[in-house]
């Protein structure tokens, strides 16, 4: 599902088109290249020859991954054991077509992963989280199941004298609760 979000502010937004690439520091470019090729299906592409540092560029699915080798990356990280797989940690997320197949393939490769489920108004999203060789979190999901609804399009009509659940709107429960919370916070700030 592709959706354009209308500009609603008075400020002119920057002329962005899309996400171009993600750049990651890695201990070994070739270990990371193998991971992104073998596990995620990226393809190694030509990188500008003017770079005077070891790295690699990969591309697929309309996005690039730029790897920059930094063997001393461990000098900046005091953690010596693998980080826990935490869905609330920073991560890169990729849309996938079959979450069950993802889990089977990760198991076949002996990779550790955790799963999570997001549900909203009868919609279910399955997520699979795992690490690349340098501990960066990767998520594969079927997130297209969740409709993209800008919050400003959600109608918020509190009942007179009450900030309890608003009347039925085009948005889900979470958006209504967020609007109620924002309204309550605004009232608290005004006094």
UniProtKB/TrEMBL annotation:
It comes from Citrus sinensis. It comes from the Eukaryota. Pfam families: Glyoxalase. PROSITE patterns: VOC. CDD domains: VOC_like. This is VOC domain-containing protein. InterPro entries: Glyas_Bleomycin-R_OHBP_Dase, Glyas_Fos-R_dOase_dom, VOC_core. The lineage of its organism: Eukaryota, Viridiplantae, Streptophyta, Embryophyta, Tracheophyta. Gene3D superfamilies: 2,3-Dihydroxybiphenyl 1,2-Dioxygenase, domain 1. SUPFAM superfamilies: Glyoxalase/Bleomycin resistance protein/Dihydroxybiphenyl dioxygenase.
